Amino acid sequence: MLNKRDVPDGSGQFEGKFLVAMPGLASSFFAQTIIYICAHNDEGAMGFVVNKTRGMTFFDLVEQTDVFTDNAVPSMPSSIAYAPIAHGGPVDEHRGFVLHTSDYCGESTIPISETVFLTSTTQVLRMIASGRGPKRCTVSLGYSGWGPGQLESEMLENSWLTLEADPSLVFDQDHETKYDRLLRAAGIQPEHFVAGCGHA
Fold first, then answer.
1. Which residues, including other chains, have CB under 8 Å from residue 65's CB and lie 6 or more apart?
2. What is the pTM of this model?
């Protein structure tokens, strides 16, 4: 379960933005990733990769965990059951996190922006499975985290391009094309994307 103290307070310059991996990260976990930054301050930053999957579906996740301990997994529409689980990052890879629209709010829900909220409880997973969850969401395992000053250093090394976050892209399930689509929407041809790009 995610506690509010797990998410750094404050509103740093990258909070609520997309970080887009530059070519210099091609040999790392973050190659061609888009990260939605949920929190950024002097203590560090945290966010979620929104275009990389774990090779499992939502049905796989609830079936393999203790989301439904007393009851059988309910019958779900295919749009929910076969929704891909995102690989949010290399930190706490066995913890589940849900980025979702504002129409769901639980006790531990944390607002990230006016349109994107974060919840990490088994309750939200049960609500999604039963069709009573948020209208749009993305379920991730793991998150991406940086210590104090680490993200700022990576920005100086031109590891990331910053772009305004598009909430619809956060919830978009077509993960394989997100990177190219985001670059093209920003007026960048993916084939010409080189390490010398600046910051938006």
1. 96, 122
2. 0.87
Q: What number is the average pLDDT over the span 159-166?
A: 94
Please give the structure tokens belonging to residue 25: 């990260």
Nearest partner of 50 among 178, 195, 158, 164, judged by Cα:
178
The per-residue pLDDT of the chain, averaged, comes to 88
Written as one string, the DSSP assignment of 115-155 is S-EEE-SHHHHHHHHTT-S-SSEEEEEEEEEE-TTHHHHHH
Q: Are strands 137-146 and 84-87 parallel, antiparallel or unpaired?
A: parallel
Closest CA to 53 of 20, 83, 91: 83
The C-alpha atoms of residue 3 and residue 74 are separated, in whole angstroms, by: 27
Range of lowest pLDDT (5-19, 44-58, 126-140, 163-177)? 5-19
Structure confidence at residue 63 as a pLDDT band (50, 70, 90): confident
> How does DSSP assign 60-85, residue by residue?
HHHHHSSSSSSSPPPP--HHHHTPEE
Task: For 44-62, give the DSSP string.
Answer: EEEEEESS-EEEEEHHHHH
Sequence letter at residue 161: L
Q: pLDDT class for 65, splitting at 50, 70, 90?
A: confident
> Structural domains in the chain?
4-192 (3.40.1740.10)
User: How far apart (Å, rounded) are the C-alpha atoms in residues 147 and 151?
Assistant: 7
* The pLDDT value given to residue 5: 41
